[in-house]
Amino acid sequence: MTDPKATKHSWFYRWFLNNKATIALINILLALGVIWMLANVSWVFTPVGDFLMMVFPPVVLSAVLYYLIEPLVKIAERRFKIHRIWTITIVFVVIIGLIVWGIVALIPIIQEQTQQIIDNWPKYWKNIQATADSLLSSSQLDGVRDQINTQFDSLSKTVVKQFNDNIADWFSNITSAVGVITSIFVTIATAPFVLFFMLKDGPKFKKNLLAFVPVKFRQPTGELLSDINLSLSNYIRGQLTVAFWVGVMFSIGYSIVGQKYALTLGVLAGFLNLIPYLGSFLAIIPALIIAAFTAPLMVVKVLIVFAIEQTIESRFVSPLVVGSKMEMHPVTTLLILLAAGKMFGLLGVLLGIPVYAVVKIIFMRFFEWFKSVSGLYEPEAEPEPQVDTEKNKQDQAETDK
């Protein structure tokens, strides 16, 4: 009969059954096996993916508008005692009025200025070529002129070929174009209804969701949902508020200095400012190109407008917008933008930061739970000082005498 103690302390038990590294590797292997199995049956999830792709745009648009409108509804309900339904109705009427005003007043101006930019772009391109030719004619570039001309011709051919290929793809993929238009129409048509019920039943959402969570985990799950909601609301409100005022400041600044297409360039700057750190610098590029072929002094004026806007934004607008900063290191932000933009394009650039914020909150909550459960991060107890018993006895005897 085998001795239980011998079996318990055998090498197989020590190396495999009672080895944390082995258990971790087995768990990783099982996880990879599950991923491989799911990849081979991906066709099962295709209908689910199609459903999510149809539902995702209106839900995201409604969520963004919800975070913008919810503070107004809350203030009207608590401070002015206005019923929530009436407040939501008034907000919807105001939004519809602003949309109608934008369509009537702003859209025609932006459309006209955009068309002028498109019509004048060949002239700008010729000026760029003329400027490049004048720079290349300098005697200081005799040694590299041929190489620069070759690279410039290659770049021009590549751009033209890419443009022609894209045009051919656009005309050949009529079904895809119809699908995009249908998705946009469905988003615009369904988002108001989703937004209405989000505003109406928003305070009940957390309570109803926690009803499905076991009682033991309801408190930490509720705290997790609150942290995620706070982080997303701060980011969305902060980014959109700052982007709005950036667009306003650039439009006013360009109009004052006499820059062409001031409103269009300002609106473009506002949209690009949704990209953290890089948006404002990307927005200044088209303004500088147009200013360079308007007048040399206009370049200086555009740079002055940019400097003033950046000062006002960094000193007044951003500090006043609570939650506009995500407490993220700039290097982390840039890496997330690069990775998300590479994988998911423009959508990844816009949603990469908030998705990272949500994942970070979940990870930190799980890490705090792991620290409390594992006990691996508790500080070691300091050893108690050794007491010299004999010396204490002698001291006590002298004291007694």
Summary?
With 401 residues, the chain is an all-alpha fold. It contains 14 helices and no strands. It has 2 domains: 48-129 and 154-200, no CATH class; 213-374.
What percentage of amino acids are in beta strands?
Answer: under 5%
Mean pLDDT: 78
Number of helices: 14
Quaternary structure: single chain
Can you tell me the number of structural domains? 2
Largest sheet: none
The percentage helix is over 70%
Instruction: Tell how many strands the DSSP assignment holds.
Output: 0
Spatial separation of the terminal alpha carbons = 68 Å
Order of helices and strands: HHHHHHHHHHHHHH
Query: What form results from the Cα inertia axes?
Result: extended
By helix and strand content, what is the structural category? mainly alpha
Unreliable residue stretches: none
Radius of gyration, in angstroms, nearest whole number: 32 Å
Layout of secondary structure:
Layout (H helix, E strand, L loop, with lengths): L3 H5 L2 H7 L2 H21 L5 H33 L5 H53 L8 H28 L1 H37 L4 H43 L4 H11 L6 H14 L3 H25 L9 H15 L1 H29 L14 H12 L1
Helix pairs in contact: 4-5, 4-7, 8-9, 8-11, 8-13, 9-10, 10-11, 12-13
Structural commentary:
- With 401 residues, the chain is an all-alpha fold.
- The chain folds into two domains: 129 residues, no CATH class; 162 residues.
- It contains 14 helices and no strands.
- The termini are far apart.
